[in-house]
Amino acid sequence: MTSPDILVGCHGVARTYGVGAAAVVAVHGATCEVRSGDRIAITGPSGSGKSTLLHLMAALEEPTTGRVTWPGLARGPVPDQVGVVFQGPSLIPALDVVENTALPLVLAGHREEPARRRALDCLALVIATGLADKLPEELSGGQAQRVAVARALAAAPRLILADEPTGQLDRATGRHVVDVLLATADTLGAALVLTTHDPTVARRLTLQWSMDNGRLRTEPQPPWEPAAAGPHEATP
């Protein structure tokens, strides 16, 4: 692969929160590359560093050590190059659903009316057109997650990073959202990296990476299943 085919590369990346005895290492020396057309599922338990790794790839956080590069993104990790679906609430409370969805386009300099039309098209993909005029406070968790997916796709990014995109959805809706992510990535020629606890979702992507205690494994993985709860453990 030539450098332009590599959309993002992590080179010995680590991320530590806090200092001294209270320091927590969320990611330990991760090295990986995401190339054009990749379909990657990152699996692992809660707290294993999956979300932090995606945030590093999106330049939402800076590594404590190591470096992240974006050789295949002409203008770097900006909103119309990298679309991010966050695990937690991420919609802007003062904006309605269509305004939230159009935001990456507006930030990239698109005019308001074309941005609105594109936002409505993306909301239709996730079956959320009827939510267009609602404020985030009027949405359920699952509805807000679908809007977040539409927003990530609105600017036709080259790299889509989705953090537990089906986590708040019922199985049928989750399956549809993964369909949309995969189909849109195919249409755009984009790479898709998602984190998931769901082995059914993970198996739909070509590559499976895993994280455990902040350590990334990128070599071929067997079909992933969550660990069974022990006699004194609760199943997540």
Summed up:
It comes from Streptomyces noboritoensis. With 236 residues, the protein is of the alpha/beta class.
Explain this structure.
This is ABC transporter ATP-binding protein. GO terms for molecular function: ATP binding. Keywords: ATP-binding, Nucleotide-binding. This protein has 236 residues and is an alpha/beta fold. It has one domain: P-loop containing nucleotide triphosphate hydrolases (Rossmann fold, 3-Layer(aba) Sandwich), CATH 3.40.50.300. Helices cover 29% and strands 25% of the residues. The chain contains 6 helices and 9 strands; from the N terminus they run βββαββαααβαβαββ. Strands 5-6-7-3-8-9 form a 6-stranded mixed sheet, sandwiched between helices. α2 crosses α3 and α2 runs parallel beside α4. The N and C termini lie far apart (39 Å).
Keywords:
236 residues; Rossmann fold; 9 strands; disordered C terminus; ATP binding; P-loop_NTPase; AAA+_ATPase; ABC_transporter-like_CS; nucleotide-binding
**What fraction of the residues are assigned to beta strands by DSSP?**
15-25%
Helix-strand string: EEEHEEHHHEHEHEE
CATH superfamily placement: P-loop containing nucleotide triphosphate hydrolases
Q: Low-confidence parts, pLDDT < 50 over ≥5 residues?
A: 229-236
Number of contiguous helices: 6
Number of domains: 1
Average pLDDT reading? 90
Given the C-alpha coordinates, what overall shape results? globular
Determine the fraction of residues in helical runs and give it as a percent range: 25-40%
User: What's the CATH first level?
Assistant: Alpha Beta
Major sheet summary line: 6 strands, mixed
